């Protein structure tokens, strides 16, 4: 067993059970680096002698570990999901972490988590997909998580190919928007008390996403210019920047959206920070589910209006603007889309 100095780094070299293991590690030539490499060598030897994958997983890029552990393929899908998640999670938003975790724990882990990476076959996924009752969208999202786990293992040289690439994407059904008509809007806004009336009036006449509505601050509003700057988003109780560059935007306020703000400023529900606050607690909203369950849904039931999620307020705004002859590019900018492709795809029947 030895550690040798070479140009640009060190070579770990040892023999265990009549097999030689050798690896070059780039590092500066100093005492600190030399000590670290010696300690790494000792850990390698221990992992191999004990056949301990938990130790080996700390060095997924190590050629020695790949060679020692069944030619680099002694990991289960669950083993490598932990490696992938640990390496990548710092680049993900809170909602991405939540979505990936849900798909993995609900579908991937119980079905294939215990399989060795190279035991998984594309047909296993297709068989599962044919029997499950999930939508095409959910199946594709599960496929995406599984593919990323295998892609990480492939890039680390642990497996020779990514089997998920052999799985075709499943057809996703497009659901056409179901906007509210003018009569329904009048009934809804007539039934809602302040400040819920102003919240949904603003939603219907700006098309903002739910998280954008919750995150809106008075400092983002320029009433004299009848404009709002969309800069923050509330998702799962946390404030963060909007997901895409196109979502960071300045919108023109419709007259009825402007009126909602002017009215709100004159009520006892005015807060100097957030535009919309919970009237029960007089604090900012962290989640919108309470609004949907206890305000929106009972109102539609009382008015006998067919139920649609509050997100249809966004679709209502887009359809109203397009029906009024607004330029699709202007509508796309108002909605936070990078171009008008999504407008054409989703709201095609409202285009002149």
Any overview of this molecule?
A hairpin with a 4-residue loop joins strand 9 and strand 10. This protein folds into three domains: 67 residues, no CATH class; 90 residues, Tyrosine recombinase, N-terminal domain (DNA polymerase, domain 1), CATH 1.10.150; 163 residues, Intergrase catalytic core (hpI Integrase, Chain A, Orthogonal Bundle). The radius of gyration is 28 Å and the shape is elongated. A three-stranded antiparallel β-sheet has the order 1-2-3. A three-stranded antiparallel β-sheet has the order 4-5-8. It is built from 15 helices and ten strands. It has 352 residues and is mainly alpha-helical. The model has no long low-confidence stretch (mean pLDDT 87).
Question: Which characteristics define this entry?
Answer:
DNA polymerase, domain 1; three-stranded antiparallel beta sheet; 3 domains; hpI Integrase, Chain A; 15 helices; mainly alpha; 352 residues; 12% strand
Number of domains: 3
Measured by DSSP, the beta-strand proportion falls in: 5-15%
The N- to C-terminal Cα distance equals: 77 Å
CATH superfamily of the largest domain: Intergrase catalytic core
Helix share of residues?
40-55%
Instruction: Give average pLDDT, whole number.
Output: 87
Q: Indicate the structural class.
A: mainly alpha
From the alpha-carbon coordinates, what is the Rg to the nearest angstrom? 28 Å
Count of helical regions: 15
Order of helices and strands: EEEHHHHHHHHHHEEEEEHEEHHHH
Multimeric status of the protein = single chain
Reading off the top of the CATH hierarchy, the class of the largest domain is best stated as Mainly Alpha
Give a quick account of the main beta sheet: strands, pairing sense, barrel closure: 3 strands, antiparallel
| CATH architecture type of the largest domain | Orthogonal Bundle
Runs in which pLDDT lies below 50 for 5 or more consecutive residues are none
Q: Let me know the number of strands.
A: 10
Any idea of the CATH topology of the largest domain? hpI Integrase, Chain A
The strand order across the widest sheet is 1-2-3
Overall form: elongated
């Amino acid at each position: 067993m030895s550690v040798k100095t070479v140009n640009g780094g060190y070579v770990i070299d040892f023999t265990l059970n009549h097999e030689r293991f050798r690896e070059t590690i780039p590092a500066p030539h100093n005492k600190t680096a030399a000590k670290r490499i010696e300690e790494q060598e000792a850990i390698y030897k221990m992992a191999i002698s004990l056949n301990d994958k938990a130790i080996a997983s700390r060095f997924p890029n190590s050629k020695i570990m790949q060679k020692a552990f069944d030619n680099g393929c002694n990991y289960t899908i669950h083993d490598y999901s932990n490696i992938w998640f640990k390496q990548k999670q710092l680049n993900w938003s809170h909602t991405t972490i939540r979505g990936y975790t849900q798909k993995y724990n609900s579908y991937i882990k119980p079905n294939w988590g215990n399989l060795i990476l190279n035991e998984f076959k594309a047909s296993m996924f297709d068989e599962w997909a044919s029997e499950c009752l999930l939508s095409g969208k959910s199946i594709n999202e599960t496929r995406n998580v599984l593919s990323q786990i295998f892609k990480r293992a492939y890039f680390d040289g642990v497996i020779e190919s990514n089997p998920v690439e052999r799985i075709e994407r499943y057809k996703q059904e497009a659901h056409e928007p179901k906007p509210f008509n003018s009569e329904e809007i009048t009934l809804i806004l007539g039934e809602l008390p302040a400040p819920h009336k102003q919240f949904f009036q603003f939603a219907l006449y700006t098309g903002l996403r739910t998280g954008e509505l919750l995150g809106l601050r008075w400092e983002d509003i320029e009433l004299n210019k009848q404009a709002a700057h969309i800069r923050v988003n509330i998702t799962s109780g946390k404030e963060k920047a909007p997901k895409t560059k196109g979502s960071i935007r300045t919108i023109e306020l419709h007259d009825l959206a402007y009126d909602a703000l002017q009215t709100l400023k004159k009520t006892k529900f005015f807060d100097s920070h957030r535009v919309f606050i919970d009237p029960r607690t007089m604090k900012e909203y962290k989640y919108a589910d309470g609004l949907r369950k206890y305000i929106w849904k009972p109102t539609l039931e009382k008015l006998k209006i067919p139920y649609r999620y509050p997100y249809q307020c966004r679709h209502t705004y887009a359809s109203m603007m397009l029906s009024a002859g607004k330029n699709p590019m202007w509508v796309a900018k108002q909605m936070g889309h990078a171009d008008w492709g999504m407008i054409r795809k989703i709201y095609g029947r409202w285009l002149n």
